[in-house]
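stage 2 :: seqdesign
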């Protein structure tokens, strides 16, 4: 049976604060098991999003993309996203909005409601560990993430989302 919610955690653990996605994945996996919520979520960790990740959206009621952001307002942003029309696709890397667009194009249907949790990173140098600031941002974002997982519904998530300015 397909879990109703898919969570993508994206980042490279070898590039400093780019490890925020994988770090969040590890914490979330343990937390979901402890809270007896693991069956409601499928966690997918990868270095970057690919076209194939559109297939992971099939049969879901919600999708969440977690990544680090260099210029993200601290400590994090959480917002709803939509398919990106006219996005240039490559076979190498996609933003979350493009994954939604690939789903729309290949499935001929709207993708599940999707959100991005972007955690502010400070240092992204190869071989560096997670910075102290990023670790604090991760802690702050995890409080939101645990609330999202306790209430996996579109209405609850939309209430917690940051309005996107036009």
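stage 2 :: out
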């Amino acid at each position: 049976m397909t879990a109703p919610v898919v969570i993508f955690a994206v980042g490279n653990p070898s590039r400093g604060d780019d490890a925020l996605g994988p770090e969040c994945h590890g914490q979330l996996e343990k937390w979901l098991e402890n809270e007896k919520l693991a069956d409601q979520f499928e966690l997918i960790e990868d270095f970057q999003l690919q076209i194939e990740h559109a297939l992971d959206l099939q049969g879901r009621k919600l999708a969440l993309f977690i990544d680090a952001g260099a210029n993200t307002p601290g400590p994090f942003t959480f917002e709803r996203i939509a398919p990106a029309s006219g996005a240039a696709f490559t076979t190498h890397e996609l933003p979350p909005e493009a994954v939604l667009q690939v789903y729309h194009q290949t499935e001929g249907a709207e993708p599940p409601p999707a959100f991005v949790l972007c955690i502010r990173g400070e240092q992204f140098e190869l071989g560096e560990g997670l910075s102290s600031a990023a670790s604090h941002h991760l802690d702050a974002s995890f409080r939101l993430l645990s609330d999202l997982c306790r209430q996996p519904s579109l209405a609850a998530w939309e209430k917690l989302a940051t309005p996107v300015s036009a």
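stage 3 :: structure notes
- The longest strand covers residues 62-69.
- Residues 88-92 have pLDDT under 50 and may be disordered.
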